[in-house]
Amino acid sequence: MSTDLPHTSGAPTLEDVARVAGVSRATVSRVINGIRNVAPDIQEAVHRAIATTGYVPNRAARSLVTRRTGAVALVVSGAGDAKGGEPFESRVFADPFFGRVASGVVGYLRPRGIHPVLMLADSAQTRDDVVSFLRQGSADGALVVSTHGEDPLPKLLVDAGLPAVLWARPARPIPISYVDLAHRAGAALAADHLVARGCRRVATISGPFDVPAAQDRLSGFQEAMAGHGHPYVPAVEGDFMPASGEAGMHRLLKEHPDIDGVFVANDLMAQGALLALRDLGRRVPEDVAVIGFDDSAAVTCRPPLTTVRQPMEDMAAEMARLLLAHAADPDFQVTSVIVQPTLVVRESA
Amino acid sequence: MSTDLPHTSGAPTLEDVARVAGVSRATVSRVINGIRNVAPDIQEAVHRAIATTGYVPNRAARSLVTRRTGAVALVVSGAGDAKGGEPFESRVFADPFFGRVASGVVGYLRPRGIHPVLMLADSAQTRDDVVSFLRQGSADGALVVSTHGEDPLPKLLVDAGLPAVLWARPARPIPISYVDLAHRAGAALAADHLVARGCRRVATISGPFDVPAAQDRLSGFQEAMAGHGHPYVPAVEGDFMPASGEAGMHRLLKEHPDIDGVFVANDLMAQGALLALRDLGRRVPEDVAVIGFDDSAAVTCRPPLTTVRQPMEDMAAEMARLLLAHAADPDFQVTSVIVQPTLVVRESA
DNA sequence: GCGACGCCGGAGAGCGCTCTCCACCCCCGT
DNA sequence: ACGGGGGTGGAGAGCGCTCTCCGGCGTCGC
């Protein structure tokens, strides 16, 4: 068992391992990939050779022939030219929403040896970059989280025939798989709870209207309240950020001082609403009951927030699962998975 | 100019473009990579051919020969077997700290066409995965953010001769580039401000002692206070999470009811401390002045938090810059960049 | 006892690209 | 008019891997 020098400088290759083991390249490849039967003693020899050479297969070479990369793009897509001066990436990554999605994706992909590549698409240029990235074969598919409904990226991906899975139903129907929450059902859960605890003057702070999920939560809530005999529900529009929840609550109370229950379309805004309520001396939940949505910032609120839980990690994992299925089988059928939310009762309602 | 069919199915290759343009593969490659002179009319023809074929260079093939990938690993490294039952990825990505680092990294890398690959290293197995990933040539280097000082990953990377840059100075000195904050100077800023506004009974809530940055903030604060004639500063240890700030504040006030100023080692804990103070009826800053650290959650606090600002995005961008330098030139010297913090005065102190 | 079949290892052809040579041509100097 | 040099395009050798095909050998059936 002479350990020949690894022929030249640089990393050892299959060839080197084969030479050390005294077999052919093909056999080493078979052992590594566990394909076909290889005699146990030869397997043993190959493993020893791999250990002594410190061989690691070259990813580029492998993916050149297999046409698979073991990577997927995790794309956050939205409009960069928003109001704020802050760059898109700051706003995106600061959002706990992104963190939870990333967490779910990583949790699913990691045990499978797949790695997510972080990408941002906030302009025509960067959207094209995403498409090129995939067409280059840099990743096997894309997981897309859009910050608003009219995002053009999903359609680009579909047109290019690239495997992709969306977070949330796109505004215009296109043939693409996605995972979404039953927002209306979630809003109804909140309405039921508010009514059950005896609230008579109920209002809501909604998300931005250009986000389909926000529309669904609003209309779902209104309908459920109508079903309970409350056809009119005061509503103000927020932007899903804490400050807008605070401002919205102030506006609501100014116009309707007798409000005793509020459904806020996400926890971040609910956090703001809670601050406003406290500033105005309203007790929660005694004077005003508050229900949030997402269960993202709920435990750090004062009082802890009753909220509609969206199991983001599970949903993100499901996206990853669907994407791998699409990548493995081009004929895998377009699928949409709708997840049911649950009400988490804490102290605010 | 007959547009031959792209020879078979599958993506068009350099060969196809060359045939359509009526030149050789080499020439097309030259045009694409802008290397050497190519006659203007031929360039033109090549560009037309690229457009008509819809050609995109194959990343794997390219990186097989160039030995560069255009990707870097963004690794969050720490211990998975922590107290909480939550998986490592949840804790990591929920932290606004990670979001800001990611934002800075992406901001720098994106214009340069480099993509970050998200990785987690929370066990011996996953640390090896990171090393293998890089040795496979899946990425050109690693950006490592460790959650505690004794992380073994940096040493593994150095020993393997892989380009890597760390967030924060490692606990044991190893020859690796890193970017860090002047924590002691930041803590001194807080001490000076507290003393200047007339606080006489000052305490601190520190971070976990196994994090070097936490130690530095604590000892830097103590030393600065000693310099102001306060040799003894009550201190309790937290874990950088909001709940521990709240608990710490309660403990501090129980043991030292006359406290009129607190330096909290990060904003998340300061947020908790603020809640505790409010629950106990202490006014901020009139009764107790509070200074946080990081400037991460400061504006959503009540009152808005005076804090020591750590320019995380800039620091992360600097990490990326150093990494690319190391990747481009193996002889690039090991460098440590220490960034100066600033005090941001808001309302809490 | 002989042919056929199955099992297992080796040879070699690419995957799509870059890059080093080399050949060619045009222009200039003497 | 002829040799040489600079600039430009083409040919072809790989980069490290997978995978199909083939050949050799052992075994089983009749």
From TrEMBL, chains A, B:
The chain positions of domain HTH lacI-type read 12-66
**Domain HTH cro/C1-type, chain residue ranges per copy:** 13-56
Organism field: Microbispora catharanthi
SUPFAM superfamilies to which the protein is assigned, alphabetical: lambda repressor-like DNA-binding domains (SSF47413), Periplasmic binding protein-like I (SSF53822)
Show the GO MF annotations: DNA-binding transcription factor activity; transcription cis-regulatory region binding
- Cross-referenced InterPro entries, in alphabetical order? Cro/C1-type_HTH, HTH_LacI, LacI/GalR-like_sensor, Lambda_DNA-bd_dom_sf, Peripla_BP_I
Q: Which key words are in the record? A: DNA-binding, Transcription, Transcription regulation
Entry-linked Pfam families: LacI (PF00356), Peripla_BP_3 (PF13377)
**Record's PROSITE patterns?**
HTH_CROC1 (PS50943), HTH_LACI_1 (PS00356), HTH_LACI_2 (PS50932)
Q: Which Gene3D superfamilies match?
A: 3.40.50.2300, lambda repressor-like DNA-binding domains
Record protein name field: LacI family DNA-binding transcriptional regulator
